[in-house]
Structure formats: C-alpha cells, structure tokens
Design a protein that fits this description.
Elements lengths: L5 E7 L5 H15 L4 E7 L6 H11 L3 E5 L6 H11 L4 E4 L11 H8 L5 E6 L6 H18 L11 E4 H4 L12 H7 L4 E6 L14 H19 L3 H30 L7 H32 L14
Helix pairs in contact: 5-8, 9-10
Bound molecules: uridine-5'-diphosphate and magnesium ion.
Length: 314
C-alpha cells in the first residue's frame, strides 16, 4: 500500500464564491487520510476575486499553494501546470466549482491501491442540464469507439493519478478529456469508481457549444497521433500506393485502347483522372516520407522515448 504524499490539483477560473466552501470541505477529508498532502490551486487568469480568496485560504493553511496564470489559458493548461508543480506521489485532480465532492477522494485512493495507475470518477448521476447530459452521453460513446479506451465519463475531472503516469504527458488544447486514453495507450492501468455530482450553486459554467467542436478536433488529432505517429508513412504511403496503382491501371487501359484500337485520348476525361491519381498518389507518398522524417526528428528531441518501462528487476 502506498503511503506517499498526496497532491490535490484544482484549476479555478472565476470561482470566487466557491473557493472557501471547497477548502472547508476538502481540508477535513485530507486530514483524515493522515498522509502528507498539499493542495495546489491554479488560478487560470481569473478576473474576479478568486486569487484573493485563495490567498485568504492560504493564510490559514500553509499546505495550500497557488499558481497564478498571467491570463486564462484553459483548464487543460491549468492541469498541466498542476502536474508539473505537484510534489505528491499521487495526484488528485478536481474542479473548484463544488460539482465534485471531496468525500469521494478516499474512494479513489482505495481503488488505486488495487493496483491501478489512474482512477477516474464516473458521475453516474449527473446534475447538469438535460442537453449537456445527452450530448455528453453521445460524446463519450463516440470517444470510446474512436480511442478504444472505455471509461464511462471522460468529462469528470475528479481523478487520481500516480505521479509517473502524468510526468511526461504533452497536454494542450482541450485535451484533458483524453488523458485516460493517452495513458491507456501508454500501457497504464485505468480504473473507475462512481462519484457524486452536485449542481453548480455559484458562478457559471465556463464552456459553451464551442467546446463540442474543439473537443472533437482534439479527439481526432490525439487519435491520429496515437495510431500513426510512430509510422506516418503507413497511412500516407498506403493511400499513395493505392492511388498511384489505380491511376496507372486506368492509364494503361487507355494506352492499350489508343495503341491497338486507335481510340484518341483527346476526349477521354478518364485520362485526366488517371494522371491526377498518379500525381496525387506520388504526393501522398512523399508527404508520408516527410512526415516520417519529422516524427524521427520529434522523437530525437528531448530524449523522447517510444517505450515506457514499468520496472527493472536485476
Ligand atoms: N476552468 C479553468 N479554466 C477554464 C475553464 C474552466 O480553470 O478556462 C475550471 C473551472 O474553474 C472549474 C473546472 O475548470 O473548476 C470545470 O469548469 P466548469 O465547471 O465551467 O465546466 P463544467 O462543469 O460546466 O463542464
Ligand atoms: Mg463544473
């Protein structure tokens, strides 16, 4: 069983009324776990009194740390900053809007002790608008299909991570929803527990319909990167070869008719198509080779490894 330090990472963007309530309910839970702990708040460029509220909390509890962003960089960036600065062996993330319940933290940790690297909360009974719930159901189903990772609720930020799992994650955009997918692709074990969810009492949600589009595009990029980042030539090259071969076959057929049946090429649209296919096919192939070289350069940088070792026994 793990007894190392715990870090709670909490992004906050314009959540002034929520901060005192949150700290008040979180502190006793953390004390009861009787482990070393810290609470790392990320003030994501709030324009209200969130930062002052956080500083007030810090006066009474030196375990509270505040990372203040210069401007609003978004929840994913805030989580990434939290991961970098957290000192704990286990990192717990949650929202600051009182929609997650600190009482669920011990459950996450208990589950983690069953030998999981990441434990995700699942808001089985969500307290959000019907539209949000329906859309989220659809989006979660779609994500499970595309990523092959199959936790129920990728929108729930209440999660526990082992430090090493998040140590070298490249997070940007709206990618925090796909952290479990990214981690399961790397071979980390992902568990799930049902957690509570409350309706928002103070402040407003920070997201609108635009996140649907951004989230969808991020999903495509994340998945494409996972499938083909190692060998982009596999996808570009396959397209290229197929197009070129079909183009050449059509061209050969037309050439045959020209030579032996004296059918003129001048008024045959197929001829243009075959040339186009060969040219595009070769382009695809070349793009694939270039992409492959770029990936090699990328992996050559900063010692990026294409494997992860769980442990070495010697
Ligand atoms: N948040 C943030 N930066 C942003 C947007 C949101 O730090 O740009 C925080 C926000 O303060 C909250 C959490 O991320 O603690 C989840 O946001 P929100 O409650 O608005 O999302 P919802 O619950 O509606 O999905
Ligand atoms: Mg919320």
């Amino acid at each position: 069983m793990n007894t190392g330090m715990l870090s709670v990472v909490i992004p906050a963007y314009n959540e002034q009324e929520n901060i005192p309530h949150l700290v008040k309910s979180l502190e006793p839970v953390m004390e009861k776990l009787s482990r070393e702990y810290e609470i790392v708040f990320i003030d994501d460029g709030s324009t209200d009194n969130t930062f002052n509220a956080l500083k007030d909390m810090r006066k009474n509890n030196s375990r509270i740390k505040i990372i203040k962003f210069r401007k609003n960089f978004g929840q994913t960036a805030a989580l990434a900053a939290g991961f970098t600065h957290a000192k704990g062996d286990v990192i717990i993330t949650m929202d600051s809007d009182l929609q997650n319940d600190p009482e669920d933290i011990p459950k996450l940790i208990e589950k983690m002790n069953e030998d999981y690297d990441v434990v995700c909360g699942w808001r089985a009974e969500r307290k959000d608008s019907i539209f949000k719930k329906l859309f989220s159901k659809f989006a979660n189903g779609f994500r499970r299909k595309i990523t092959g990772e199959n936790i129920h609720d990728s929108g729930c930020t209440l999660r526990a991570y082992k430090k090493e799992a998040v140590a070298d994650l490249d997070l940007y955009g709206e990618m925090h929803r796909y952290i479990p997918a990214l981690l399961s692709w790397k071979g980390y074990k992902i568990g799930e527990v049902i957690v509570q969810h409350h309706a928002r009492k103070f402040g407003k949600t920070k997201y609108s319909w635009q996140r649907i589009i951004k989230g969808f595009l991020d999903l495509l990029v994340v998945t494409f990167w996972q499938r083909y980042s190692a060998r982009p030539i596999h996808i570009f090259g396959s397209f290229g070869i197929i197009l070129t071969l079909v183009g050449m076959a059509i061209g050969g057929y037309l050439g045959f008719q020209r030579l032996f049946h004296k059918i003129s090429l001048g008024d045959r649209p197929l001829f243009t198509l075959s040339i186009l296919m060969v040219v595009i096919g070769i382009q695809f192939f070349m793009s694939g080779i270039l992409a492959d070289i770029m990936v090699k350069v990328y992996h050559g940088q900063n010692d990026k490894k294409n494997y992860l070792i769980e442990r070495i026994e010697e």
